[in-house]
């Protein structure tokens, strides 16, 4: 298929795309050569700021199909009937690395799903782990700084990582996950995804339940050993991107079973009274024996993007995007992310990033937002204001119709650290691991720990001991095997 003739961005035909306009055969180059100037100007500006976190990612389109009726929990129309399909977009990513980093680094993986529903976009922005390192968004910038580059050396710093983690016992559950074999998944197709946070669903009667979302890979869990991950990072740093793209291109469409855990407010209050665990704490899971998984549907990825920059790099998801029949929870980390993600996209992509095709809803939309950069769908001749209804609003049953979320207590800064149990669930995870997986955990931890001070090592070992004495003993043995003198 022949390419159309080259033009400027304004559609003006270009006579010669091979030679600059010069004064004589040897120059100098003339400033009036607008085609040259436009090409160089655009080239200088063709990168948007990379994401501060989740910078390197891969994406694909697909479908979500309802397989089980959950209308008793939610009025959201995408779940209205078994068999109903909704178009989706899923962006996978590593968390701490830059755009040029390797896909196989030890790192959580982003698992961000957009559902293009008839009531607007629902974004479930999660990870491949059901928990996280911290429980309050005010510590998120501090934590991420420890995963980035040292301000003096510009090198990744095990000292910064473990200094933070060793002073933050709440991180132990996620640290245990990260340094297990699941810290280096074999591509994106062979890992689970989680909404991680607690969200809520609202049914037609206005009743709220709290939920956690799970995406369980039908391809089976598959992980890389530390040695394999390092080898692949050197030979094919884009390993996960290549694997995902090629699988979809040849028709081997990856699928995930979508399930959820459900609990009423009374259920969670009783569970918290029994266990002492805050059900809205992102460093905790809801055990399946207490809150069984309920099947909902199947997510399939079946179409690759045609333009990576337009459809993956500029994809702008936010957990604040929930549709009628859905809501949030008192999870402190979620509350921070509801602001931070949209704000990041405003800075990174632009004021009207929702106008871009990958971000635009598939249903009609209307508001009074106008102008700014990239104002593609700018309202036309419609008025750009909505008057106050002097007689009071008169809801027509549309929109969220979300019931009031109960609140209690005086406004203030509350710190329960030192009073909460940060060790039992981490120990439970450790005890679930087979012996060979436990040994991988010891060895994976001993590598970076062997590069930090004795003070940090002892502080971190103390946390392992409190999770399980065998956990601490195993890491000590692995450190001694590396020549590190530990108590």
Automatic annotation (TrEMBL):
Residues 7-394 form the Catalase core domain. It catalyses: 2 H2O2 = O2 + 2 H2O. GO terms for molecular function: catalase activity; heme binding; metal ion binding. Heme binds at residue 341. The keyword Nucleotide-binding does not apply. Keywords: Heme, Hydrogen peroxide, Iron, Metal-binding, Oxidoreductase, Peroxidase. SMART domains: Catalase (SM01060). Residues 1-22 have a biased composition (Polar residues). The active site is at 54, 127. GO terms for biological process: hydrogen peroxide catabolic process; response to hydrogen peroxide. One of its GO terms (cellular component) is cytoplasm. Residues 1-25, 395-415 are annotated as: Disordered. Signal peptide: none annotated. Its EC number is 1.11.1.6. Decomposes hydrogen peroxide into water and oxygen; serves to protect cells from the toxic effects of hydrogen peroxide. Belongs to the catalase family. Homodimer. This is Catalase. It comes from Duganella callida.
């Amino acid at each position: 298929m022949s390419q159309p003739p080259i033009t400027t961005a304004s559609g003006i035909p270009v006579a010669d795309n091979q030679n600059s306009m010069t004064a004589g055969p040897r120059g100098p180059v003339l400033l009036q050569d607008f085609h040259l100037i436009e090409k160089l100007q655009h080239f200088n500006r063709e990168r948007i700021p990379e994401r501060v976190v989740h910078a390197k990612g891969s994406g694909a389109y697909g479908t979500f199909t309802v397989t089980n009726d959950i209308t008793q929990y939610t009025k959201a129309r995408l779940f209205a009937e078994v068999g109903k399909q909704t178009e989706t977009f899923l962006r996978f990513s590593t968390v701490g690395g830059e755009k040029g980093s390797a896909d196989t680094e030890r790192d959580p993986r982003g698992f961000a799903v957009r559902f293009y529903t008839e009531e607007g976009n629902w974004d479930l922005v999660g990870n491949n782990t059901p928990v996280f390192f911290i429980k309050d968004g005010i510590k998120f910038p501090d934590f991420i700084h420890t995963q980035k580059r040292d301000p003096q050396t510009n090198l990744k710093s095990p000292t910064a990582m473990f200094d933070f983690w060793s002073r933050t016992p709440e991180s132990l559950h996620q640290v245990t996950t990260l340094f297990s074999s699941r810290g280096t998944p074999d591509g994106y197709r062979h890992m689970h995804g989680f909404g991680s946070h607690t969200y809520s669903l609202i049914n037609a009667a206005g009743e709220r339940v709290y939920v956690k979302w799970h995406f369980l890979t039908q391809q089976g869990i598959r992980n890389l050993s530390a040695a394999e991950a390092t080898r692949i990072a050197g030979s094919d740093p884009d390993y996960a991107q290549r694997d995902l793209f090629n699988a979809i291109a040849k028709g081997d469409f990856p699928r995930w079973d979508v399930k959820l855990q459900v609990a009423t407010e009374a259920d969670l209050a009783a569970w918290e009274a029994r266990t002492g665990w805050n059900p809205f704490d992102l460093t905790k899971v809801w055990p399946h024996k207490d809150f069984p998984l309920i099947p909902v549907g199947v997510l399939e990825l079946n179409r690759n993007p045609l333009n990576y920059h337009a459809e993956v790099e500029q994809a702008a998801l936010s957990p604040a995007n929930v549709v009628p029949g859905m809501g949030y929870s008192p999870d402190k980390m979620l509350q921070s992310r509801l602001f931070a993600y949209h704000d990041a996209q405003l800075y990174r992509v632009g004021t009207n990033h929702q106008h871009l095709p990958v971000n635009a809803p598939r249903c009609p939309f209307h508001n009074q937002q106008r102008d700014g950069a990239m104002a593609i769908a700018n309202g036309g001749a419609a008025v750009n204001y909505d008057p106050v209804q002097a007689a009071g609003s008169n809801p027509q049953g549309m929109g969220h119709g979300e019931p009031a979320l109960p609140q209690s207590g005086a406004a203030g800064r509350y710190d329960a650290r030192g009073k909460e149990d940060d060790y039992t669930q981490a120990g439970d995870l450790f005890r679930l691991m087979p012996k060979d997986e436990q040994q991988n955990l010891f060895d994976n931890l001993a590598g970076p720990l062997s590069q930090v001070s004795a003070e940090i090592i002892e502080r971190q070992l103390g946390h392992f001991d409190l999770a399980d004495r065998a956990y601490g003993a195993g890491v000590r043995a692995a450190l001694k095997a590396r020549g590190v003198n530990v108590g």
